[in-house]
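Q: What structure does this chain adopt?
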Amino acid sequence: MDKKPLVTYFSGTGTTAEVAKKLAHAIGADGRRLHDSAPAASWKTGRRFDARVDEKTLVSWVDGLDL
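A:
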């Protein structure tokens, strides 16, 4: 079975949701608003992005996570 990344996010105002959806699309992931859905997960440190962030910047950040 192939593994596919999942981008999870919490968005109070909608800005984070917009960026998370762009990120999910950029890396071929599913994007879902989830909170505390995987308590046993190994969480990575996040980063704040402006809603106008470009795909190249997002991909570069993900590549740096060594997933």
